[in-house]
Design goal:
Length: 145
C-alpha cells in the first residue's frame, strides 16, 4: 500500500512539474543511476561478478535518460545553448558506453561530475518564474535555452 501511495505521489509530481523541473528530475535520475554504478566498484577498482548486471543496468538507464534529454532539445529555438547541450549529451553517452565496456570508474565519475553541475544549473533555471507547467498533451520537453 505504501508503494502505491509513493508511486501516485511521484506521478503527480511529474504531471504537475514545470518544464524546468522535468529537466531537473531527468538529471537527478541520471545522477542517481551513475552514483549507484560508481558505488558498485570495489576498493581495488573492480566490480564483483554478481554486480556486473546491476552495473550495466545503471549505465543503460543513465544513457536512456541522457538520450531523452537529447531528443527534448529544440535545436531551432535553442540556438547555441541547444547545440552545446547536444554535444555534451552525445559525449556523455559515448563515455558511458565505453565505461560499460571497459568498467572504467574514472569515465563514469567524470560524466557524473558534469551532470551534477548541470543539475545545479537547471535547478536555478527551474526556480525562475519563466517556467510554465506543460500542457497535458505535450509528449516531449522543449528546451529553448
Amino acid at each position: 500500500m505504501y508503494n502505491n501511495a509513493y508511486t501516485a505521489y511521484q506521478r503527480t509530481n511529474i504531471n504537475t512539474a514545470t518544464r524546468g523541473r522535468l529537466i531537473v528530475l531527468l538529471y537527478e535520475g541520471a545522477v542517481k543511476q551513475l552514483s549507484q554504478a560508481v558505488a558498485l566498484f570495489e576498493p581495488d577498482g573492480k566490480i564483483l561478478a554478481k554486480n556486473i548486471e546491476q552495473f550495466g543496468n545503471c549505465l543503460q538507464k543513465a544513457e536512456a535518460i541522457i538520450s531523452e534529454l537529447e531528443v527534448s532539445l529544440d535545436m531551432e529555438k535553442g540556438g547555441e545553448i541547444a547545440k552545446n547541450l547536444m554535444a555534451l549529451y552525445l559525449y556523455f553517452n559515448e563515455e558511458l558506453m565505453q565505461a560499460n565496456i571497459s568498467k572504467d570508474k574514472g569515465k563514469i565519475e567524470s560524466v557524473l561530475k558534469m551532470l551534477k553541475d548541470l543539475t545545479e544549473s537547471w535547478r536555478q533555471i527551474a526556480s525562475t518564474t519563466a517556467n510554465v507547467t506543460p500542457s497535458s498533451n505535450e509528449s516531449r520537453l522543449s528546451i529553448q535555452g
